[in-house]
Amino acid sequence: MPCISSGNPRQAPAIVRPTAAFPTQAPPNDSPEAARNRESRDAARTGAILLVARYRLFRAGLRLAIERHTGAPVLECDGLDALPRQTTETPPGIVLVYLRRPAASDTANIAGLRRRWPQSRIMIISETVHPSVAHSLIKEGVRGYLLDQNGVDELRQAIETVRQDYVYLSPEITTSLLEDKRVHEEQDIIQTTQPINSRERDILIHIAEGLRNKEIAARLHLSLKSVETYRYRLMKRLGCDHAAGLVRYAIRAGLIGP
């Protein structure tokens, strides 16, 4: 059973202003786009919160927490597949969706929500986070993303943040996205670097393991001069100024463990 704990997050969440997808300043001359943006912000600030989750006990506890800490009226819906049967007089200000383990298919469901209620803000609570899925959901228009292990205070802060037309990401979501970005950047570096041959690979592994040139020469039955030459070529080819750079490359390439 998922739960929202009463603890506080250990680090600050990511709160950012959206840009192209959700412009926050009205264009001049009161254009139709400006009117839609104002209506969207007003709906998020004053409308009800639609809670979409299959687990009844979870919905009941979350509803109580939201009503107590935000004062907003809360509607309930038994899962995304029940949304087509959901009828409301006005679009909800916020649609809070619980996805236990978000999958790529959920992106299409969120896109459907955006088409049905373009003025509503969409928030996600999940048990786990997969960076690529989280990135797709955010790209599709999700304005808030938390884990079910986060506290009630953070949920309240997230709702208030989204109401003010910002995007709220819990620290865990932010960390996961940044780490995924770092890994992809390192893979890009490795793929664009000139390949090394098997002998250079052996030399690199031994350097990364902390062996000195003499030790590497003895282990690979090479002359000291040959090892020094291989080392120089590796540093030049991989763009490293010192041995630490070679070690980092070996870790990124999966030649040794971190």
UniProtKB/TrEMBL annotation:
Gene3D superfamilies hit by this protein: 3.40.50.2300
Signal peptide: none
Database matches in CDD domains: LuxR_C_like (cd06170)
Stretches for region Disordered: 1-41
One GO biological process term: regulation of DNA-templated transcription
Domain HTH luxR-type residue range list: 189-254
Record has Transcription as a keyword: yes
InterPro entries: CheY-like_superfamily, Sig_transdc_resp-reg_C-effctor, Tscrpt_reg_LuxR_C, WalR-like
Keywords attached to this entry: DNA-binding, Transcription, Transcription regulation
GO MF entries: DNA binding
Name of the protein: HTH luxR-type domain-containing protein
Organism: Termitidicoccus mucosus
